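Here's what a typical entry looks like (3-phosphoshikimate 1-carboxyvinyltransferase):
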Amino acid sequence: MHATVSQSTVSGSVAAPPSKSYTHRAIFAGAYGGETEIHRPLVSADTRASMRAVEAFGAQVEQEDDSLTVSGFGDKPAVPADVIDCANSGTTIRLAMGVAGLVDGATVLTGDESLRSRPQGPMLDAIDQLGGHAWSTRGTDQAPIVVEGWADGGTVRIPGDVSSQFITSLLMAGARTDSGIEIALRSALKSGPYVDITIDVLAAFGVAVERTDVGFVVPGKQEYETPADGYTVPGDFSAASYLLAAGAVAGGEVTVEGLFPGPQGDSAIVEILERMGADIDWDEANGRATVSQSALSGITVDVGDTPDLLPTIAVLGAIAGGTTTIENCEHVRYKETDRVAAMAESLERMGVTVTEERDTLTIHGGESELTGATLDGRGDHRIVMSLTVAGLVADGETRISDAEDVAVSFPAFFDVLDQLGADLATE
Ligand SMILES: O=C(O)C1=C[C@@H](OP(=O)(O)O)[C@@H](O)[C@H](O)C1
Ligand SMILES: C=C(OP(=O)(O)O)C(=O)O
């Protein structure tokens, strides 16, 4: 499916979709626990992959109107009857590898072509350190992955700069081991706020995690306790970043509801827009951010904690006057596609001058108007959504392939933009 976007003004009030990261964690926490009702979950391709994964280990997931009921797999996850297909979802395969470590038997995990290109080596190594055995069928540190359980716990030394999802996985599974897991980071942690989200969800399920000088410790033999009123998923700042960016470059006035302060690192989008000179007001108490169009100027942003914002910031930088420097972005190359290269290539096609280095993306914005172009969505939801925002201000039509991939994290993306008045079509 292609999306075709033309210059237009967006205005109105919309709800942020529910958080993908919180929904994944609530599904896995529910599976480790008894019976949990998850209110206002994100139901998308990625979170469906997590639902299928926990079901493969013996949990059950029922979907009703705006909730999910997860019945846990009991004391031990079952040996899956089949290969687990994690589709496009890095979070799913990594959290499922932790569960697989507790299985008394072998689990095989795979995914789509994109997921099978992403690095899993540190988690394979971690499982080996814990006395289990995990390997890549191709010997490439990529899926397909086979995991044989360890069941016990222990100490793990693991790099912090490949994916925080390994840490999340070890913390969630470690609580159910006998002796717990002590994690020593071999390099500084990137995407750190995602571990904060994990600790937040674990606390809601009564599971304790301690921070240490070198990493984290999760004591073993902990029970996941069902939160008394179920678990309510907050709004998603990563998804909201496209709507806020749209308001800042193509408003009108756009209000996004459901954005409350909390551990999501991507709430930094509000401060980033402010620093660029956007007219934005975040009413934190009421969870409402309102932004209208104003002239933006380039800034320097470190995305070590906020990799998913890179495509949004790159588009803002292309429209802003002056230079925007996105630093500390090497880990953003390990996502659904190499997002640093994808944004450099797409913005260049729109007439923007970009300098790409391994760990830095520099955008020389405001040199000329963005020009509409035919762009490759690269099968990556965040590339598609951010380029759609660029299309709202480009001169002439912007045509983006793989538009259907917004289903991964924000299935209603095009409907919401349409509701805000964007001139776009999908076919
Ligand atoms: O744990 C999570 O929910 C996520 C962690 C981040 O990945 P990395 O930790 O691999 O950077 C982020 O990019 C991803 O979209 C979601
Ligand atoms: C990288 C992402 O997710 P995951 O790692 O779960 O595939 C994302 O949503 O941008």
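The pocket of phosphoenolpyruvate (ligand 2) is lined by residues 20, 46, 89-91, 308, 335-336, 382, 409 (CB under 6 Å).

More examples are in the samples folder.
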